[in-house]
Amino acid sequence: MPDAPSADAPAVVFDRVSKTFANGRRALADVSLTVAPGEFVSLIGPSGCGKSTLLRIAAGLETADTGRVLRPERDIGFVFQDPTLMPWATVADNVALPLRFARTPERDIAPRVAEALARVGLAEVASAVPRELSGGMRMRTSIARALVTRPRVLLLDEPFAALDEIGRFALDLDLSRLAAREGWTVIFVTHSVYEAVFLASRVVVMAANPGRIVADEAIAFDRPRDEPLRDRADYTAACAAISARLRAAAGPPEAPVDRDVATG
Ligand code: ADP
Q: CA–CA separation, 54 vs 201, rounded Å?
């Protein structure tokens, strides 16, 4: 059982967490990370460095082999890369799903769903079905579904990766505003250095084989972030610094193979 944190305790703690899968993959080796309430942490690193595994352990969807994990047992929302909506159900019914699972009294469901949809700007399309929505709106629906239980901790696994850049920028802005206004603790997995830096109060860089943390950088810009930040020189410099950390984590580029030596 995970330990239940008290009100002023860190929201999520990984203390020397390791995880090796049955196929021998060392997804996480000795990972320690403490996330304070209200922090927005972006997790970035090459494919296979254990980002999703770390998030799934935070969500309780996966267990660590060794180490200690401290996380709230409830009050956690999870947003996947794919919106995973029920295609036959309305936006409102999709968002209501976690409340129905939790056997929330039916009279409380409609106002809670309306509140979640209003937060993500989807009040107007409550009775639409997913195929009538744009990709960005489907992702907003998925976020509303994660918010409807009023979580304090929000875990997002590359939620905007499938969107075009304009849609992605718009959702980045919305998420930054919502997270700052509501005081959420967020762990956000992304492959984009620009997105990681734009959103986060802290960027954690991971490396693979085995999955581990190699850098942990504070990002000091005021939150919520705004669109003009994207054009600022200090933002671009922060992105370049994280990019350099990422390249260092990946190691030197592979040397070209000398065919004569390789075959001979
Ligand atoms: P990331 O999200 O950074 O791409 P993952 O956490 O998905 O990385 O995976 C970390 C490593 O663990 C990878 O080598 C991956 O192949 C492996 N892995 C992840 N999930 C499983 C699983 N259920 N079974 C076996 N290996 C897995």
A: 19
Q: What is the pLDDT of residues 151-164, one digit of tens each?
A: 989 999 999 988 88
Pocket test for ligand 1, best of 21, 49, 187 (most atoms within 8 A of CB): 21
**Does 38 score more than 70 pLDDT?**
yes
With a 6 A CB cut-off, is 63 part of the ligand 1 pocket? no
Tally of CB atoms within 10 A around 221: 16
**How much of the chain exceeds pLDDT 70, in percent?**
92
pLDDT in tens, 5-14: 455 688 999 9
Q: How many CA atoms lie within 13 A of 223 on its CB side?
A: 25
Q: Does the CB atom of residue 157 touch ligand 1 within 6 A?
A: no
For residue 168, the SS3 value is helix
Residues forming CATH 3.40.50.300 domain(s) in the chain:
1-75+151-250
Residue nearest to atom 7 of ligand 1 (CA): 52
Q: Using a 6 Å cutoff on CB, does residue 47 contact ligand 1?
A: yes
User: What's the CATH superfamily of 1-75+151-250?
Assistant: P-loop containing nucleotide triphosphate hydrolases (3.40.50.300)
CA-CA distance, 212 to 83, in Å (whole number)? 28
